[in-house]
């Protein structure tokens, strides 16, 4: 994460700033919020305007609350989420541990076994409607890269054919106990929601981003076309 040293002096609990978010940690609470327009940053392509910055955080909060109500999957507890002064805040439980990406390869197999059980529980949650628990549709990041469309009005199905997907299951988003290797929390549910099961790509099987790399099959265009075919 790129950090601005002046931010730390100005805001208590601040730990990092990226092109998308500001992060804070204090007294067992982890906070992430969207950037305000006057905080947007300039990169090598010019001014970076985060896409769906508020909507993704609201969707994450509602997804976490939904998962906690309907499963025993380990996730952070949401304390509150709200908008203030053109920024959206998500305040939740801070989870101690290390990311799966920090473990030696030979120890990751244990984590994958538990993670498979979590995914099975997610797939048991079904809906006839695409998108998050409240109806916000946030396609996976790899799909958003292929389209400028941010608002989705999609037809519902006549049957509960969609399963709940995290849609960003990289090793960095799986927090584990480094001693027992038990999963302490699955984090970063910004892109979560009910989608066809194939949306949940097993990115946790290797290091790297939640999109195709090296010789992996890139499914992003196929997923985009599926969503577009359901547009009202």
Automatic annotation (TrEMBL):
SUPFAM superfamilies membership: Protein kinase-like (PK-like)
UniProt cross-references to CDD domains, sorted A to Z: APH_ChoK_like
GO molecular function, one term: kinase activity
Keywords of the record: Kinase, Transferase
Domain Aminoglycoside phosphotransferase: 11-128, 146-203
Coiled-coil intervals, chain numbering: none
PANTHER family the record matches: AMINOGLYCOSIDE PHOSPHOTRANSFERASE DOMAIN-CONTAINING PROTEIN, AMINOGLYCOSIDE PHOSPHOTRANSFERASE-RELATED-RELATED
Protein name as catalogued: Kinase-like domain-containing protein
